[in-house]
Design goal:
It contains 5 helices and no strands. By secondary structure, the chain is mainly α.
Length: 162
């Protein structure tokens, strides 16, 4: 059961990273298109600035879990480097638990934000008038992937000897 969950967690975080990679390519292509249109044709998409912001948000959010599972987030190791591995695991479990609680709150609030934007029909003030809940969806999805990665981290720390 533990091994299946850890494998699923890794696959989900890799999927998030894959989506983030694709969105990064889309972002670069969008900016290149805007540059070409402005330079050669003296025109604009009128949406590149807005959509590049949405894409950047999604790239960051979808990369949270993958980054965490691959030790890419900032960690304070000066304490854990000087203590035993058992005590280090306890510190990791404590920090991971606090992180999970905070992420749970952020997830809850981000779902409420998306739902409120959907219910009220909020659209962007830009030319595209994009329904704002669509780009906001990246936040709860990314936080959910992050939470799954933190749970996998906790499972590894709690059951590493078993």
């Amino acid at each position: 059961m533990k091994a299946r969950f850890l494998t699923l967690s890794q696959k989900l975080s890799l999927g998030g990273a894959f989506i983030a990679s694709g969105l990064l390519i889309a972002l670069v292509l969008l900016i290149l298109l805007e540059i070409i249109l402005r330079y050669f044709f003296n025109t604009s998409t009128m949406r590149a600035d807005e959509y590049s912001g949405y894409l950047y948000l999604a790239i960051v959010c979808f990369g949270f879990g993958y980054t965490f599972l691959h030790d890419g987030h900032i960690r304070i190791t000066f304490l854990t480097a000087k203590i035993s591995s058992k005590k280090s695991s306890l510190v990791d479990i404590f920090a991971g638990s606090i992180t999970l609680v905070l992420l749970g709150f952020i997830f809850y609030r981000s779902v409420l934000l998306v739902w409120d934007s959907y219910q009220t029909g909020v659209v962007s003030e830009a030319v595209s008038a994009t329904p704002i809940f669509i780009p906001q969806l990246a936040l709860p999805i990314g936080i959910a992937l992050f939470m799954i990665s933190v749970i996998a981290f906790l499972v590894q720390r709690m059951f590493h000897d078993k």
